[in-house]
Here is the input.
Amino acid sequence: MKTKTFVILITTIFVCCSPKKELPILSNYIDENGAKKSYLIDDFQFTNQLGKSFNEESTKNKIHIANFFFTSCPSICPPMREKLIDLATTFQKKNFLILSFTIDLKNDSILVLNQYSDATSIPKDKWVFLKGNPTELSKIAMKFKTSFSNYNNSSDFYHSSYVALIDTKQQIRGFYDILNEEAIQLLKEDIDLLLNE
Amino acid sequence: MITSGIVYYFNLSNRHQAIVKTYVLHSLNIIDSEWIKDANSQNIQLTSPTFHIDNIYKSMEGPKASTYYTLDTQKDNLHWMTAFHIKAISPKTNNQLSNDFVCHFNIDYQDQEHHGKWNLLERVNKQYPRLLSLSHGIENIRFPKGYGFPFFSNEKFFITTQALNHNIIDTRFNVKHQIEIEYSNKRTLKPLFPKTIYMMLPFKMDAINVPHDDIPANSCIPVETKNHTYLNEKGETLSGHWKIFKEEKKYTYNTTKQLAIKDTITLHQITPHLHPFTKKFTLKDITTNTTLYTCNVTNHKNSIGLTSTPAFFSEKGITMYPTHEYELELITNSTLEEPQDMMASLFLFFYDKEMDLKIKTYYNEN
Here is the structure.
């Protein structure tokens, strides 16, 4: 009994005194006057794969990750899709969702996005595929600190394999290259951390 | 099941066997699997997990480990990386071992964090975000006086280190890698922008098993065709990793497009990344027919390995122009009967004028 109490006491002390990992807040930048500016992901207007409006109210108090993609992407999107399915499955029962913004506004209709969504077998309220107008897309890409461009006028685009992690307060807490196994492991740990915050 | 696993394992390449072996040894805690990370006001020190050396491991084949590193997630202060070091050490005594057990150490920044912080979003997705690679033959570099790579304390870096063993076959032993990054808080430093250029040689997919004498000049037989294979604008296949044979050979590659110089810029530091049996690696301005940098390589005399691959440093810098053409020239001289793997890269550091203006404004404000 004494031993058990001692072990519980030592464990409690260890847990309480261990430095807790905290994620930095990355939704900020240095403006043209050299001042640090913070912002929230709290102003956007898109349409989801079901044709319904999706905006900042839809992500309020929800931990989520966001990425940019297009359904006919021949290069990095197929392996990214597999990793995102794994993440969606792992956190399906938690306060967590995935947002995927299409960058091919010409070919990715709402119907195409919905078919793409069907093929993932992930519930549509857990992995949301979004389409907006060029201005909204450019605005949200800036907020997520990314850019994309057409690849030699072909059907491919230069875009990133990174996802951004956003907390319940709509702040960016990390960027992760989901084609890298170590990054996925870290992302899972950081999602867990935010879920327990 | 077990028999299939054993058969599968022994059919793997040396590189993949090392991955499996390292995973098992680390997972079962047979050898130390943890990174040790430490920092003071001037130095970041990372000690790798233990690597078990039980075989010949050529470049890119040995046990490796990766980790993320952030100096301080809760602070947002600007610092400057100024020097990088790697050495092999004994896990038991921490004494330094031969650097023949260091293949390379890579440090990658995170595009969105690094450029996004300065609102330089047009730089995101433009190049692989590698800051530097220190490799066998060059285990220490320091930027020229007055220059550094700017980073914030809450910025994340991805670090990978890989072991090497070209020569020892009759014993098993363990090594760790100790990485040191020196950093400064001086507000007078100027920022450097990294860019990697590398040799690529054409090859034909249907001619990778032909005798090497039948390969046209300045082309290659690739080590493999899955990774490090690129397409040029003509649709030709090129490889960044190829086989060299027992002979002296010269290769050239026009690197103008890789450089993608938009404005006149100055080059202040070059760190080469080469394999054994390289004799000389040169960067040339072929518009003016001038040599900008020559790396005269010293190979080990009685074993396989690189004794020295000297880097380039200059406070004044070399001016490079958007209208000029640039070429890499590599001379190799293998003394072995069996083919050897070759690659050749240069990690270049240019003065970053745009970032300098932003940092000056930032320092005035903060």
